[in-house]
Amino acid sequence: MSGERCLRVSRRLHIATSTSSYILRRLERWEYVKRDAETGTYEIGLRVVALAQGALQSLGLRQVVKPMLHSLVEQTRLTGVIAVLDHGQAMVVERVDTPEFVRVDVAVGAHLPVHSTSLGKILIANLPKEQLGSLIVAHGMARRTRNTIVSRARLIQELESVRRQGYAVSEEEHFPGVRAIAAPIVDSSGSVIAAVSATGLITQPVWSRPRSVIELVKVTARDISQRMNSF
User: Fold this and answer.
1) End-to-end CA distance of the chain
2) Contact 48, 85 (CB under 8 A)
3) Alpha-carbon span 33 to 182, nearest angstrom
């Protein structure tokens, strides 16, 4: 579903407009669809995106994506992670470790705050202002480290940079001593459906070449996007 109005949905499904309106309102409440307040159109919601893990598994796409994540890890010696937006948090759906990184609590299935992680920043960077505001109100902006962004104004400014650059950075904002770079995985329309990151200790040698890490993460995100959209 991409920008569908209630009337068009009712016509496509051959049901009454009142029925489609009721169904869409319920789906919106459960976050399976989202409604644009200005245009009145409905689009795929966060709960559908959160099913990505199951989709990757059942369609066999996980086997396609994981080698790309392994490649990123091999080239950077950093931990590779993929996450989707689920109930206002970044839910980890895939992870490949490197033995050179001290493990932290980012297991598959874990939910991470969006304001303090590079994955989260990517996932919320293009949200409508109203939806972003509701997310912040619902989850807050708890301080995790001395570098955590806890000001809404500063977060909005940070997200503007993320959109402009095409990648996000978490500089000891969630875990002390840990740096992460993330980039967006997009669907065929260019909408962000997930994020991929490379994470490691700030003392690891690869950070002496930060631009190379950024480019590798962006290339990985692009390759995953292209491969997923080919199915």
Assistant:
1) 17
2) no
3) 26
Shared domain check, 109 and 33: no
> Residue 204: which CATH number?
3.30.450.40
Task: DSSP letter for 4, please.
Answer: B
The reply to whether 77 and 24 lie within a common domain is: no
Rounded to whole angstroms, the Cα distance separating 1 from 173 reads 35
Question: What tokens were used for 26?
Answer: 């319920």
Query: Cβ(142)–Cβ(113) under 8 Å?
Result: yes
Quote the number of domains for the chain. 2
Element spanning 171, H or E:
strand 168-171
Report the C-alpha gap between 114 and 97 in whole angstroms.
21
Residue 1 falls inside a structural domain: no
Is residue 23 domain-resident?
Answer: yes
Torsional class of 112: left (φ above 0), alpha (ψ -120 to 50), beta (otherwise): beta
Let me know: does 80 contact 73? Beta carbons within 8 Å.
yes
Contact between residue 83 and residue 192 where contact means Cβ atoms under 8 Å apart: no
Domain range holding 20?
Answer: 6-44
User: pLDDT truncated to tens, each residue of the chain (231 aa)?
Assistant: 445 677 777 777 778 888 888 888 888 877 777 777 777 787 766 566 555 555 555 444 566 788 899 999 999 999 999 998 888 999 888 888 887 665 566 777 788 999 999 999 999 999 998 899 999 999 999 999 999 999 999 999 999 999 999 999 999 999 999 999 999 999 888 889 899 999 999 999 999 999 999 999 999 999 999 887 776
